[in-house]
Structures are given as structure tokens and as C-alpha cells.
Amino acid sequence: METQMSYLQKHPDVTKSRLNTFMSNSQFKDVNIHAALYEARVSGAAHVSLEVWAAPGTERPTFEHAVKQEFTAIDGSDHTFGPSWSTHWVRASLKIPHEFAGKEVRLLFNPGCEAMVWSADGMPQQGITGGGGADKRVEYVVARKAKAGSSVTLYLEVACNGMFGLGDYTIGPPDEHRTFRLQPVELVVRRVDGMALYYDLSVLKQMLEKLPRESPRWWQALSTANAIMNAFDAQDAATLPGCLEIAKEFFAATPGSATHQVYAIGNCHIDTAWLWPYDETKRKVARSWATQLGLLERYPEYMFAASQAQQFEWLKELYPGLFARVKEAVKGGRFIPIGGTWVEMDCNVPSGESLVRQFLLGQRFFQENFGVRCRVFWLPDTFGYSSQLPQIVRLAGAEYFFTQKLSWNNINKFPHTTFNWVGLDGSSVVCHMCPAETYTAEAKADQLIESVAKHKDVAYSNESLYLYGFGDGGGGPTDDMVERMRRMQDVDGLPRSRHAHPDEFYAHVEKKAAGLVSWHGELYFELHRGTYTSQAQTKKNNRMAEYLLRDVEMLSAVAHARTAGFAYPADELTRLWKLVCLNQFHDVIPGSSIEMVYRDSDRMYADVLESARGMKQAAVKALFAGSGLCAAERAGALMVLNTTAWPRTEVVAVPGGNRGAMRGCEQVRKHDQAALAVAAAVPGTGVQLVAPSAAAHSVPASAYRERGSGLVVLENLHVTAKFSAQGQLVSLVERRSERELVPAGQAGNVLRLHDDIPLFWDAWDIEINHLEKYRVLQAASVEIVDEGPLLASIAIDVPVGGQSHVRQFVSLSAVSPRLDFACDVEWHENRRCLKTAFTWDIRSDVATYETQYGVVQRPTHRNTTWDMAKFEVCAHKFGDLSEFGFGVALLNDGKYGYATLGNTMTLTLLRSPKSPDAHCDMGHHSFRYAVYPHHGAFNESRVVQEAYQFNVPLVQLPVDAQAQVNEEPFFTVKGASNIVLDAVKAAEDRRGDVVVRLYEAYGGRARATIATSLGFAAAAKTNVLEEHVDTVAFTAASGGKGGSVVVDFKPFEIVTLRFSK
Ligand SMILES: [Zn+2]
After folding, report:
1. How many angstroms separate the first and last alpha carbons of the chain?
2. Which one of 86, 592, 927, 997 has the largest count of C-beta atoms within 10 Å of its C-beta?
3. Nearest C-alpha neighbor of 498 from the set 484, 510, 479, 485
4. Which has the closest alpha carbon to 421: 433, 413, 411, 409?
5. Which residues of 904-929 are buried (b: 16+ CB within 10 A; e: fewer)?
6. Could you count the other beta carbons within 10 Å of the beta carbon of residue 930?
7. Exposed, middle or buried by CB within 10 Å (0-12, 13-18, 19+), for 622?
8. Confidence class of residue 5 from pLDDT cuts 50, 70 and 90?
């Protein structure tokens, strides 16, 4: 065919549209580029014969099990797989036609859902993503150079779920009755130069989408594409080399030396559970990474990064052959384990110790299996980042941080791309948020152009990271993507790009670290604020597990140090921590997964809690068997164990039927017949017998109905609290100062039922407009239950309407100003949330909230849009509103969604989203919160300790009547009331050392003496991976066992000490 015009006609828009048509895979595909992509294809029983075996129910059998089953022949042109979540094994017997000899032959297999290709000898080969979406991956290379007439047998493990599960829309609950239709199975041979031209044109087309028309390169791209279309003939493959020549000239032009540098890395974000259960994730990992190993083999320049040690461990256990291949690829330097954590965890809800364990488990796994220490903390998809992370990251042997999630902010645009992120204690890490604003980029020219255009710090950091590859449900880059990356690496009009280890990017950036801007404090995510509350039981289970494991580790470490023959249960503790850390994945603990996931996590938490309770008992028995410890029925006294490091005086309750233990019993609690007594001055990390005299010395608490007003009053030495007939706290007077904390006409314990209809992300988002629409719930009754002297309490009954109901048991003990609210809720709402609100006569521009190993202050006003965006914030065990001289804290035992506007602090108790879990949070809930008024502003208070006590109860040990206490406290912290002793555990390396973690909790300095009665003789400061950092002078105790060390703390510093014999 003669080309009539050698130059571009002056009709650029028509030409650009012509290119779209030329690339279209629907209309005109018989005469455009799609007609040139394959040179041959065959199907039918002569070449492809298929048999199938369907696994029963939702079982996911192994290859070894599946291949032994009875397979039935199917018609490859008419078969349907189903229902949802079922598994079908297909045996494909392939016969290569003679005309395919010497060619690369591919199997085209599109089951409509996900699948794994297995070799006949049981090696996973590649993942298949069926269906018709952009992420489709349905070709598998059967032979790079086929032999004529040869036969190949493959197995295809068909999983009846899509890449994004089975919802009717992105986040819809799974449709349990979905089926998937197998499309005709073929053997195909690609036309090499046709495919090459297709990739060239794809890049040209993408450049035309994004380059400015003022740029000569836009016109050159257009005229190049036009010339190619003119030279192309769909019926004549001989025209292709000419077309490629035209393209080659365009791609030969290179950018200048000052151009932006993109460091590209393939990745496939695999949500460890989300719209599919954990068991499916295990297969997603294998499918995705098998695919990527294939790409690494075929493309020598390609590099791929994968995070989450848990996913590697699953691969190691379930796919040892594939794991061995991954190990080889890691050695080769192009398969890059990254991130350093057990999973890509949520960073709002997990405790400080949990964040440490994420790194401890993760870094140790990567070190042991690959000899790799991850330097980049990798968290592209988590919903907000705690201000303690820079310190923890540093202490975990990493120094860099990657994310991009703040690009989803729905109010303010985050102002930096590459910057120093400075944490609570002043530690900093280099942070980069890829300017392409996605971790699932598709290797497109327009995204590379955006990597420059959206880079906010390009003036002094002219480089960026680019993460590409299908993700969330796994998958990763495709051949097409790697082919495009190859074409785009050095082309004028685009930044220069190449594959690189992210460490290389950060090391390069770090050289200029002193010149980077800084961001101080938390990286608050302005979206997904409902994830502090959704799936309430999961959050509560996590809280319980965190503190129960703390007790188990401390008591076991002490028992091991003290008692010959007591073995520290290291393996079991590691197993349980792995389960806890697993459920902290960034779609599980936030509450954004499907119902199936929570059935799994419920089972895991039940396992964790049961096993931990058993271990705690065993350790207690080993420690106190010689102190008169006995069975509850034979008890003549009660010993109380305090695992916090400060002395405590509390009213303790022993369940009914065990009254004998309570020599000091003065009162029986009404609702459960528990015997009450005062445990006075129980030493930190030590025990004390409950003495009858303690109760006698306390000033009685009382409950009564005030004459005249009818208000119900709870009163003790410290406070007088008055409740209205509506169940609201209408007065709270601190008696020593005679200070009224509730402003006239205002109230606390106001239960509010808000409309809670987010814009889209149902379980994720509580949106700002929920604050505009709510009703206040009114109590039906307020009754006095216990009248003292040790405990005064009332019951408040609040119908919500419909089937929902709140019952509160409000109590005040004789020995504390803390007012406890124990709630039982029947909850059957739809897109409504329940909050409790307290308005205090306190004025402050900031409220203080607990975060991991510290606190964070946030505004109580809406001065700027940044302030306004924090209309719901995450807090751990408390939120506090203080002014000079006085403050009140609101404590909780497993709630995280707080807000303070003016002088009203709210705590979000329950939500009722319907997707992706259609039954989220429906049913019964038990939880507690408490009000703790205190003298002094927050940093002069004991709020941190009080909130700790609210979550870590004293341990009651029945002992015989003659029992004597002669125990020394295990560990004490002297001279610094702002230091909290958190974890005490055996060292991971099992050399018999004990690791103690402490932190400064109020934002000041301290010189603390940490003493131990255990037989240690030396101590060292370590990082959180328990590796030596510094020796510490250990002073042996005179005459006794153990000794002490003196440690200086900076504000919010985390200190890990390692004691050895
Ligand atoms: Zn994710």
C-alpha cells in the first residue's frame, strides 16, 4: 500500500482519536493492532483435553491430595465453576501442533475467577486472573521453544473467587452463590513484532494523554503514531518491521541530564485478609509470587519487592518448592523482601508493644530465612501513622519509611513527598510518599509524568519511587507492564526510570536529608475514621490479648529466673504473638474485612486467650506454690498479685462461693454475689495479702437518692457524682477542692445515637456530617444496686428503640475517685453509631490522647481545616481534658474513637456498617469506660497508670489461712513517676536473659533506678530487636539477690534493657 501523505495533517484531535480506535480491543479489532498480535491459535479436543475434580464444600486441598482424585472429562467450550469459594482442579492434556514447532506456545485459560497453574510434578507455575477486567492474566507460557507434536500435562487449581472476592460492588458483602464460566481454552503463538508494536503504541498513547500540547514531544508522539498507522496493514505482517522502525526513531531521543529519576519496583499488594479469608490469601501469595518468579526469569532487568513476613512463612510451610525458588531469587538480589514487619499492620489500634512485636517477628524472620535486615518500613496502605513510629522503626534496625495512603485524605492535601518524619521523641526517618499516589501503578507513561508533576519536593529531591503491579488482591506486574517499563526508561518527554532496590533510592535521598523539610508528629489520615470502632469485639480481643500476654511473659520470665525446672514457654508465646500480630493486619483489626475473616479471627483470639490464661496459671503456680497457694474452695485468705510496676490500692471482687478467701470481706456485690475486699498498697510487680483491717480503714462509699431533687448519688471520700432520671451525670464534685466538674445545664454520660452514613467506605468511614444528626437516649430507669461500704453502684436502663438496648452498671469504690461504667448492649442498628459524651467545666485548646508509648495532643477547636479534619481521632486507653490545676480523663477497655470539641469529649462505642460485613457488630457487647478526675494538669497526673490499671486487673490468688508473704517485687522503678514498665520477657535468643521494656509516658525527662530481685549480675541497653546497644552499670544489691541500674530517659523515650546472669 502506498502512503499518500508523508506529513501529519493539521487535525491533531482526529489523529489522537484514530489512535484510540487503532488500539481498541472491541470495535475494529479485526483491522487494527489487535489483528496483528497472534500468528496462530488452536483449540478443541485434538489439542486441549480437560478433566475436572471438584473439591467438596469450601475445602482447599493440596496438589498431592487433588491429583489422586477421580477426574471427569469436560467440554472445554461449555463448563461452569462454582459456587463461591469452592475449588476445582482441572487436568489439561495439551498436544502441541506441528506448525507451532520452535515457537513460544502459550495456554490461554480464562476460568472467570482466580487459578493457579501447576506442573504435572506439583510445582506451582503461575497465577491466573480470569474475567474481563484490566487485571486479567490468562496466558501461561507452556514452552519457550515448542517441540512439534509434544504433549504437556498441566493442572489448574481453580478458585471460585475474583481478585477482589465476591461482592456485587467493590466492598459489597460476598455473594455466596456466584458461578464462573470457563472461556474456550486455546493454545496460541504470539506474533513477536506485533506485540512489540502494541507496547510501543501503548506508550505513545499514554504520552499523548499527559504531555502538554505545547511540548514538541506531544507532536512528535502524535506524528509517530500517525506514521505507524499509515504504514500498518493488518493483513500483512511484513509491514510490522517498518512500523517498529518508525517507533524506534521516536524512542531513541533521550532526556537531558537534569531530568527526574524514577526508581521503579514491581510489587503486588496482597491484603492478608480482606474481601477473602486468610486461607485464600495463602493461595494468593503462591499464585502472585509464582507469577513474579516467571517474570524475573524472562526479564533480567526486572525487580520485585514483597512485604509481610507472615506471607513468606505461609509460603515456606505450604509451598516449600516455591519458597526455595523465592529464596534463590532473593539471593540473586531481584526478589526483595521488604518492610521488616510480620504483616502490614494497622498503626492506630495495636499497642506500642504490638508494634515492636511486628518488627521483632518480621525482622527476625527475614534475617533467619534470607539473611536480610529490612531498612525500609513499608506500609503503602495503612490508615494513619502513629507519632511513635519513627522511634520504633529506628529501634528496629530500619531507617526509612514508605507510604502513599495520605493521598486519600478527604479534606487536606498532604504537603510533602520526600521529607524527614520526626516522631514524638525527636527520632526521625526519611519518608517518601510516591508522587504517583498509588502502589498499584500500571507502568504507564502518564503516571511517570505525574511522578514529576505531583512531586512536592522536587526542587531539592529530584527523584521518586514508583510502585507498579496489580494489587490488593495480589497479582503484580504483567508482561505488558514490564515491556512498557523497558521502553520508557530513557525517553525524552518522560523522567528517566529504572528498576532499583528501594534501599538504593532512600540511600540516595538520605545524602540530602539535612536539606529536606520535616513533618513532626503523627501522620493523621483524613479518612477511614470509623476504623477506630468497627468490629468492636476484635478490638477488645486485641486489647485483652496484649495485656494478658504481657502478664504471661512477665510471670513466666520471673518464674523461669527464680524456679529451677520452670521452662519459659517461648514457642507457645511466639505462636500466640504471631496470631495477635496477624489479626492486626490493616483490614482486619480496623474492621474493614468480610464476615468470614472475623469468624477466623474470633477462633484465633479464643485460642490465644485460652492458651495464655493456662500459661499464666502455670507461671503463678510455679512462683507461689510455696506461699500457700491453694485451690479456691480451700482458701482461707486472698493474696493479690500486681503486675504493674507501681503500688495499687483497689477494691477486689472474689466470685461467689469462695467467701472463705475473703477474711476482709465487708460487702457482697449484688449482681454477681462476689465478695468484696480492699487490697491495700499491693507493691508493684509483687504480692500482698488482703488484710481485714484495710477495709476498716477506708471511708465508706455510698449510694442514695437525694431528697428533693430525686437525683441518684454515688459518693466516696474523693467525689460526689449525681445522676439524673435520664441516666446522665449532672454533677461531679471533687470533694477536696470542692470543684464542680459538670457545667450548669450540661451533663456527662450522655448517650447519643447518631446517623452514621458515610460517603462510600461503609465499615471504614465515619463522616463529619454524622455530628449534625443525632438524638440523645433517655434512661427508662436508674436504680441503686450497691450501697457500700466498699462499692456503691447504680444500674441505668436505656432503651435505644427497636431491638437495641443499653444497660449500664455505674460504680464507685471506697478507695478511688474513678467512676466506672460497665455496659451491656444489645445492638441491632443500621448505619447508626452510639457515643457517650461528657461535658466538663474545663477550658483547653488541646486534649491529650494516649498513643503507643506516649500521648498525642490534638485541638479541641476547628480553627483550620487541618483541625477540623480531626473530628474523630484514635486514642488508646484514655483521652484527657486538662487545664492548669485540674483535669478529667475518659478511660476505656477497648474503644479507640475519641473526639473533643470545645469542652465536650466523646467516645464512640459502637457502629453498624453493612459492608463488607453485612452483620458487623450486630448482637451483644460488653465493655467498660471510666471517668477519672485528677488534680494537676495531665502531665502532673497519674492518668497513664490509672488507665493501665483499668485494663490490667490485679490477679487474685487463693491461699490458705496461714499463708505469709515474703516475696520481693520482681522489678521496681524508683525515682521517676513518669516511667512505665511495660514488657518483661525472656530474650528471643533463649540464652536465659530477661528483656525489660520501659518508656517515658508524660513527655519529660527522668533518671530512674530500675531494681530487680532476680539473680541477675549484668545489664545492657538494647534495641527492640534485643541487640546490644550500650552497656549499663549494674549495681549488685547489698546482701540480697539482684541489683539495680540507673537509666536516663528523654521525653517519650522507649528503653529496652537486657538483664543477664
Ligand atoms: Zn491493603
Report:
1. 89
2. 592
3. 485
4. 433
5. bbbbbbbbbbebbbeebbbeebebbb
6. 22
7. buried
8. low
Cell of 613: 490464661
pLDDT exceeding 70 applies to what percent of the chain? Answer: 98
Report the separation in Å between the CA atom of 353 and the middle of ligand 1, taken as the mean of its atom positions. Answer: 22
Pairing type for strands 719-723 and 712-715 reads antiparallel
Helix (H), strand (E) at residue 1026: none
Looking at residue 784, its amino acid is: I
For 28, phi then psi, to 5°, come to 65, 15
- Give the pLDDT confidence of 508-567 residue by residue, as tens digits: 999 987 889 999 999 999 999 999 999 999 999 999 999 999 999 999 999 999 988 999
Q: Tell me, in angstroms, the distance from the centre of ligand 1 to residue 48's CA.
A: 38
**Spatial CA neighbour of 497 closest among 514, 510, 509, 484:** 484
Angle at 616 between CA 932 and CA 1022, to 5 degrees: 80
CA dihedral for 381, 382, 384, 390, sign (positive or negative) = negative
C-alpha to C-alpha distance for 531 and 913, rounded to whole angstroms: 11
Q: Could you tell me whether strands 878-883 and 873-874 are parallel, antiparallel, or unpaired per DSSP bridges?
A: unpaired
Q: What integer pLDDT is reported at residue 695 of this predicted model?
A: 63
**CA-wise closest residue to 1005 among 1044, 971, 1045, 975:** 975
Q: What one-character-per-residue DSSP string does 167-220 give?
A: BSSTTPPBPTT--EEEPPPEEEEE-HHHHHHHHHHHHHHHHHHHS-TTSHHHHH
Tell me phi and psi for residue 229, to 5 degrees.
Answer: -65, -35
For residue 310, which amino acid is it?
Q
Q: Stretch 658-668: mean pLDDT, rounded? A: 65
pTM: 0.97
pLDDT at 642: 97
Per-residue pLDDT tens over the stretch 1021-1043: 999 999 999 999 999 998 778 99
Q: Which residues are catalytic?
A: 381
Query: Closest Cα partner for 392 from 339, 352, 350, 340?
Result: 352
Cell of 264: 521503579
SS3 778: coil
Total Cβ atoms within 10 A of residue 736: 11
Of 877, 868, 922, give the one whose Cα is nearest residue 896: 877
Task: Give the 3-state secondary structure of residue 45.
Answer: coil
Residue 472: strand, helix, or coil: strand
Does residue 516 sit in helix, strand or coil?
coil
Pairing of β 719-723 and β 729-734: antiparallel
Q: Could you tell me the distance, in angstroms and rounded to a whole number, from the CA of residue 377 to the centre of ligand 1?
A: 15
Quote the percentage of the chain above a pLDDT of 90. 91
> Could you tell me the three cell numbers for 455?
512531586
Look at residue 659 in the predicted model and tell me its pLDDT. Answer: 60
Dist CA 905 CA 847 (whole Å)? 9
All three cell numbers of 937: 494538669
Residues 6+ apart with CB under 8 A from 40: 97, 99, 100, 103, 188, 189
Q: How far is the CA of 594 from the centre of ligand 1 (A)?
A: 14
pLDDT bucket at 10, cuts 50 / 70 / 90: confident
In DSSP notation, 316-334 reads HHH-HHHHHHHHHHHHTTS
CB 922 within 8 A of CB 828: yes
Q: Where does the pLDDT of residue 584 fall: very low under 50, low under 70, confident under 90, or very high at 90 and above?
A: very high
User: CB–CB of 718/817 below 8 Å?
Assistant: yes
Beta-strand runs (E) in 757-814: 774-776, 781-787, 791-801, 804-813
- 89-100 mean pLDDT: 96
Give the span between the Cα atoms of 1056 and 1021, in whole angstroms: 6
In degrees rounded to 5, what are phi and psi of residue 788?
105, -175
The conformational region for residue 727 under phi > 0 = left, psi -120 to 50 = alpha, else beta, is left
Q: Phi first, then psi: what are they for 502, rounded to 5°?
A: -55, -30
Cα 270 to averaged position of ligand 1 atoms, centre (Å) = 7
pLDDT for res 694: 64
